[in-house]
Specification:
Blueprint lengths: L2 H10 L4 E6 L4 H8 L5 E5 L7 H13 L4 E4 L5 H9 L4 E4 L5 H11 L22 H11 L1 E6 L2 H5 L1 H5 L6 E4 L1 H7 L8 H11 L5 E6 L6 H6 L3 E6 H23 L4
Parallel strand pairs: 1-2, 1-8, 2-3, 3-4, 4-5, 5-6, 6-7, 7-8
Helix pairs in contact: 2-3, 4-5
Amino acid sequence: MTPNARFKARLTAREPLIGCFVKTPHPTVIEVLGAGPLDFLILDGEHSPFDRTAIDACMLAARAVDCAVLVRVPDDRATTILGVLDSGAAGVVVPHVTSADQARALARAMHYVPGGRGIAGTTRAGGYGALGLAEHRRRARDEVSLICQIEEREGVDCFQEIADVPDVDALFVGRADLSVSYGHDDFSSPEINDICAEILGAKRAATGLFCAPAETIGTWRSNGASFFVTGSDHTFLQQGATALRTGFSTGITMTGDRP
């Protein structure tokens, strides 16, 4: 089973999964993080400078370390999704999904169906021509995941309808944008917590959300979440530098030395 197929099987089975966002468009970041203990990575193409060339290079690194890497796309255009999937991505996280009709269009763009994803067997996803058309189509069903991000009032109003769309594998709650949509500056406000709990209890599709690195996930797990995104490569760099500075300063203080 490929890393992408393994990820999709675990996601749809609602096994607990932990991953992080990647904000830096460089394959070395994927090589380092992908060889570690996380279950998946997400290239943040919505808020970071990932063009198609950068995504392609990162997916090549993902193959080298057998890591499932998804892409949070900047928009819901079929052409955007096509390029991401042809590069070999494990799937897409689509922001601002607000209706079942939009989810159905996304599902069609993900798969080789009439009016859906355009097929080219000579891509990385197609094994550069080695798989053959039938095998390429079969693998695409097993290896690509569609995750719809719920972060608007309109999406909250119909989240179960979105979850019920065939080929929607998971809902991902975007608490920051959701907070803005409801007029809050704190994404842990009681109202947002209640809305998150409701969405995480969606039927059929798996559910998940972003959590701060130090946040306790037990409550969200009990609400139904199984798919957790925690921090990013930027977070890890900042935390590592802070820990180094703190340890260095503590050592100086303890020995009575002056910096």
